[in-house]
Amino acid sequence: MSTRPEFTPVERQVIEREESRELKERVVEINRVAKVVKGGRRFSFTALVVIGDEVDRVGVGYGKAREVPLAITKAVEDAKKNLFTVPKHGTTITHEILGRSDAARVLLRPASEGTGVIAGGGVRAVLELAGIRDILAKSLGTTNPINMAKATVNGLKSLRRPDEVAKMRGLTISQVLPYKAPEDQGSDPERGQTPAVEASDE
Fold first, then answer.
1. Other CB atoms closer than 10 Å to residue 67's CB: what's the count?
2. pLDDT, tens digit only, all 202 positions of the chain
3. Which of 61, 79, 147, 198 could form a disulfide with 51 if both were Cys (CB 3.0 to 4.6 A apart)?
4. Among 164, 169, 178, 183, CA closest to 87
5. At residue 74, what are phi and psi to the nearest 5 degrees?
6. Which residues contact 151 (CB under 8 A, 6 or more apart)?
């Protein structure tokens, strides 16, 4: 008896479309580690890899093997298991967030269009492969690349979409997004001036 889940035609189309997106990989760090055994040390390599489609999906993986290529392959397979979708607003994130992982803390802030990715190391790799083009990032804790990448992932996973927050608060999406307020309130000053004119006429 097959244990594979049955998918509807719509779900199959979504799965095929997601799988058809080309995933790009970026090696953040390769480190040589040693295990002390009887008769000496046994060396192996660890690899920290970030994969993403540069649209909205990203994942971080970690692998270890006796040779570098095999360690990278293991890390890529691990990253594919950890893929997730990032909520975005245009080319930036939906709101400010602080990601945490062990001693690492990474602050992520939305930025206006044209700012670029202001980040370094593993944080930059995660953000760029997630398809984020404008963002401000600051590391507030350890500089360990593994924990920094995990803290960035924790922050991105904690993001909420504007429609989710609006529904929870009972507001409109334009009220939830502060940097859209000036555009939405363009007609409000005219409404505000109307009572004042009527009052002066009286």
1. 10
2. 445 567 777 777 776 666 656 888 999 999 999 999 998 999 999 999 999 988 889 999 999 999 999 999 999 999 999 999 998 888 888 889 999 998 999 999 999 888 899 998 889 999 999 999 999 999 999 989 999 999 999 999 998 887 887 888 888 777 766 654 444 444 454 444 444 444 444 4
3. 79
4. 164
5. -65, -40
6. 99, 100, 101, 104, 105, 106, 141
